[in-house]
Amino acid sequence: MNKLSNKLPEKIPVFPLSNFIIFPKTTVPLNIFEPRYIEMIDDAMKENRMIGMIQPKNSTQNTPALYNVGCVGKITSFNETEDGRYLILLSGISRFKIIKELETKKTYRKFTIDFEDFLDDLNEKNQEIKFSDLELIFNNLKSFFIKQGYKINWKDLEKQSLDQTINTLAMASPFSLEEKQVLLEAVNIYDRKEKLSQILSTYSFDNFDNKTIQ
């Protein structure tokens, strides 16, 4: 078992964010301004700097039901703005499964979690995929991003490992909440590549109308 698994928390504060996922070995910037999440970051900075990112099933509710799988990230950069916002960088560590919600006096939500199904996320070695297997996906993604008005620095992506590239594109793609969750829960990078290809083919088939893959 990877030595990092011994450092992962059994209880963690959770930040529900719709249409947002993070994968292990990727880094994302976050702009924190809601008081409850300011409190969450304050507490995390005093402890292990770890928070869980997870998608709510209904973002219109104040305390929405959450998907069962999210990803733990560690705060690797922290800055406070003059107006009291927090600008942080969050580095993905491992996906997790929710066990139960804890009763606390905090304004944010906290859960007991389990990493057992995702121990491979802690492997330091990247999983290798042939670039030839990705060329069609990349071409379809470029067309999709252009039609959706998204801009991606493809040259920067080419400097990453292929599995990091797939995860970065899965995070950045303007897919639906449900489609992003499918990508997050994919067992490994090979399964994620196939799911990504299936989602793109569905969009292409439907002339880029939003259709969710199950």
Order of strands in the sheet with most strands: 1-3-4-5-6
Spatial separation of the terminal alpha carbons: 32 Å
Shape: globular
What is the CATH topology descriptor of the largest domain?
Answer: Archaeosine Trna-guanine Transglycosylase, Chain: A, domain 4
Number of strands: 6
Order of helices and strands: EEHEEEEHHHHH
Please indicate the count of domains: 2
For the record, the CATH class of the largest domain is: Mainly Beta
CATH superfamily descriptor of the largest domain: LON domain-like
Question: What is shown here, in short?
Answer:
This protein is of the alpha+beta class and 214 residues long.
Structure description:
This protein folds into 2 domains: 120 residues, LON domain-like (Archaeosine Trna-guanine Transglycosylase, Chain: A, domain 4); 75 residues. A hairpin with a 7-residue loop joins strand 5 and strand 6. Helices cover 33% and strands 24% of the residues. It is α+β, with helices and mostly antiparallel strands and 214 residues long. Strands 1-3-4-5-6 form a 5-stranded mixed beta barrel.
List the helices and strands and how they pair.
Layout: E1 11-16, E2 27-32, H1 35-46, E3 50-54, E4 69-80, E5 86-101, E6 109-114, H2 131-148, H3 154-157, H4 162-172, H5 177-185, H6 189-205
Parallel strand pairs: 1-3
Antiparallel strand pairs: 1-6, 2-5, 3-4, 4-5, 5-6
Helix pairs in contact: 2-6, 4-6, 5-6
Could you name the key traits of this structure?
6 helices; 5-stranded mixed β-barrel; Archaeosine Trna-guanine Transglycosylase, Chain: A, domain 4; 2 domains; alpha+beta; about 210 residues; globular; disordered C terminus
